[in-house]
Amino acid sequence: FFDASVLFKAAVTRFLLGAAQSGEFRAIWSEPVVSEARRNLLAAGRPHAAAALEQNIGLVRDPVVAPSEAIAATLKLTDVGDRHVLAAAANGEASLLVTSNIRHFDSTEAASLGFAVLTPDALATSVATRNRSALTRHVQRTPPDRLARYVEILSRELPGTMKILTPFLDG
Fold first, then answer.
1. Cα gap 114→89, rounded to integer Å
2. Angle at the Cα of 77 (from 76 to 81), degrees rounded to 5?
3. Cα angle at 117 between 113 and 120, to 5 degrees?
4. CA 37 to chain centre
5. For the segment 95-129, what is each residue's pLDDT rounded down to a tens digit?
6. For residue 45, with 0-12 CB atoms within 10 Å meaning exposed, 13-18 middle and 19 or more buried, which class applies?
7. How many whole angstroms separate alpha carbon 133 and alpha carbon 123?
């Protein structure tokens, strides 16, 4: 389950969806999460990134799950504004909640719902360890005039992952 903090970052979302397309996992999110990411991008004056968000989420078949109000009502330790995220991840039977805001989520509550909370880099590093060639191919499909910038962004946002992949990238 992807939190809004992941969807907010176009390059990270694109990369993780590439990993999902390689069959490593199924990406899901909720409409409130997408709305939050969209709102934050527009508020930050990033209309091109908001358009990229729409394009990225359009690549995934049936990704939307609804938060369970009953589950959200049982949560006491997770940040009140993010309880809907845990409730949607649980309702979608996610095994992982991927977020850049780890501190907003109580790991004990997440574990009681059947999943772990981790950063985008932790997820991507795990996938890169298992399927380096698929992720390397995904990065290299980037148009040549944008490849260096894409690698630069990924190196900043997913440093552990790119430490694994960079030695295998052409150029």
1. 9
2. 80
3. 145
4. 11
5. 999 999 999 999 999 999 999 999 999 999 999 99
6. exposed
7. 16
* CA torsion angle 52 58 60 64 (round to 10): 100
Q: What is the pLDDT of residues 64-85, one digit of tens each?
A: 999 889 999 999 988 888 999 9
Residues 6+ apart with CB under 8 A from 97: 1, 3, 85, 86, 89, 105, 110, 115, 116, 117, 118
CA 99 to chain centre: 7
Residue 143: CB atoms within 10 Å: 7
